[in-house]
Every structure is written in structure tokens, then in C-alpha cells.
Amino acid sequence: MCHVIVTCRSMLWTLLSIVVAFAELIAFMSAEWLIGKAKPSNSEDVDNRTGGSQEPYRPTLGIYGRCTRISHMQLSRQDTLCGPYAENFNEIASGFWQATAIFLAMGIMILCAVAFVSVFTMCVQSIMKKSIFNVCGLLQGIAGLFLILGLILYPAGWGCQKAISYCGPYASAYKLGDCSLGWAFYTAIGGTILTFICAVFSAQAEIATSSDKVQEEIEEGKNLICLL
């Protein structure tokens, strides 16, 4: 018989697991890893409402994508175009970024699988006599290691030609040049930290769902057990 067990610690672990997976996925897909040096607007680009020139635009570069501003030949306006600059894996700008993409993708796949499984831990707490919380916590720890490897390798690719075109000639491995780090990089770091927090907190979720109070509720014949 399935017993639905909900505790504060198990629910918090589940929510954090889902948040971490989505945060890492969004960061990986974003083009906001590097913010390039400012490019001044053309003298012809004038804001019709204010009569002043537009502010300089800073293009962004991701692991496999980019955002840049394109000017229309016959219209006095500019549009921001975002999309992948690499049509396939081999066209990613740097070998280090290719390795980053592999490690991040592996970590994110594990995190997404754990996030999916975590939803069902309210009803199923063990499989083959192994605690699902402990297994998921171990997987989150492994995912965190993959994420760390990817984040360490990523700055090594700042010396590639693609990054130099955005960050200027002074850009090199682990040196930003004229670029600055975007929100996606910081999100990936924050998600990695939370991944290890989830891995540790999974033990607390397992303890909460197997406590004496839970066992007493089960012995009383309750199928829905909610504990603070």
C-alpha cells in the first residue's frame, strides 16, 4: 500500500531539487555568460522621440549562443538577434567550451532526473531496499562534481578567437579583457552550490520520512501523513 508521506524537510528538498535543475538548465541555454565590450551606436541611429543618440550596446556570448544587435538598412531602428552561433557541437568556439558543454550537460541531465524522481518520493521512499533520498543525494553530489569541472574549464576558453572578438585583444585564458561576466555564469555557480546543499539535505529528508512519528502514523492505518 502506498503511504503518502509529506514533511517539511522532504518537501524543501524536493523544491530545491527542482529549482536547481531548472536554474542550471536555463543558465546553460542562455547567451548571457559573457557581456562583451560596449559597441557605440552609429551616428545615424537617433531616437526619434528624444532626438538623442542611443546608448552603446553590449553584445553577449554564451557557450554555444550569442546575442547581438543588427541594423536595418532601410529602417532607422535596430533589433537584438539571439541564437546559437554553432550549428553543431564541433563549431563551439573552444575545445574548453566543448568540454564545458559536455560536463554541464551531464550534470544537468542527472539533476533533471533527480528532480523528476523527487516528486514521487512522497509516495515511494525506497526501492530495492535502498532509500531513494540517499540515492538521489549521491547522484546530486556526482552532478555537482560535473558542474564544477565544467565551470573550471569554461574560463580557459576565454582566449579563443570568438571570445577575443567580443572581449578585445587582451582577453585570454582566465582573463576577461574588456568583457564582464553575465548572470548566467553566476546562476550556474549558485546552482552548483545549491546542488551540494541538496545532496547533504537529502539525508535530512530521509530521516524525516522514516522517523518514529511517521511509523506511528502508518501503524494507525493512515495513508496520508503530513508532519512538520
From TrEMBL:
Residues annotated as transmembrane: 12-35, 96-120, 132-154, 183-203
Cellular location(s): Membrane
Keywords: Fertilization, Membrane, Transmembrane, Transmembrane helix
Membrane topology: Multi-pass membrane protein
Highest taxon of source: Eukaryota
Pfam families for the chain: L_HMGIC_fpl
Keyword Oxidoreductase: no
UniProt record, GO biological process: single fertilization
GO cellular component entries: membrane
Main location: membrane
Protein family (similarity comment): Belongs to the LHFP family.
PANTHER family: LHFPL TETRASPAN SUBFAMILY MEMBER 2 PROTEIN, LIPOMA HMGIC FUSION PARTNER-LIKE PROTEIN
Protein name per its UniProtKB record: LHPL2 protein
UniProt organism field: Galbula dea
